[in-house]
Amino acid sequence: MKLWSKTYGNSGYDQIGSICELENGNIAVVGKTSGKNNENVQVLILVVDKNGNVVSTYAYGGAGMDNGVSVKANGNGVIVGANTMSLGMGGMDMMILNGVQ
Questions:
Q1: pLDDT tens digit string along 19-37?
Q2: Cα(8)–Cα(28) distance, rounded to whole angstroms?
Q3: Distances in whole angstroms, Cα of residue 66 to Cα of each of 4, 33, 39, 40, 95
Q4: Distance separating alpha carbons of residues 7 and 1, to the nearest angstrom
Q5: Rounded to whole angstroms, how far apart are CA atoms 2 and 11?
């Protein structure tokens, strides 16, 4: 039985990496998002309520490609595992975002 179905995104490229339920019943989704011409790919953190309505969105990263691949509930916030080519030592590096609400 389907409770609801919604799509999220913008005019660029959006992709899901991971999803988890928060202690307050909201759902956290991480992945990546880009602008219209697929430039400036950033980690996307999307939080929706139990009906799929957007509670908050966050984008993290820099001028290169960044991608959220894992999310875990941490109280009412999340810890996100990501890959980054914008930040770090060069090439593809790992990034952890902690305390995102």
A1: 999 989 999 999 999 877 6
A2: 13
A3: 29, 9, 11, 8, 9
A4: 18
A5: 27
Q: What does the CA dihedral 24, 26, 27, 31 come to, rounded to 10 degrees?
A: -100
User: Token pair for residue 69?
Assistant: 């691949």
SS3 11: coil
Tokens of 27: 């759902």
25 within 8 A of 50, measured Cβ to Cβ: yes
Two tokens, residue 67: 């991608």
Q: What is the pLDDT of residue 38?
A: 65
Check: CB of residue 14 under 8 Å from CB of residue 57.
no
Q: What's the pTM value of the predicted model, to 2 decimals? A: 0.87
Amino acid at 28: A
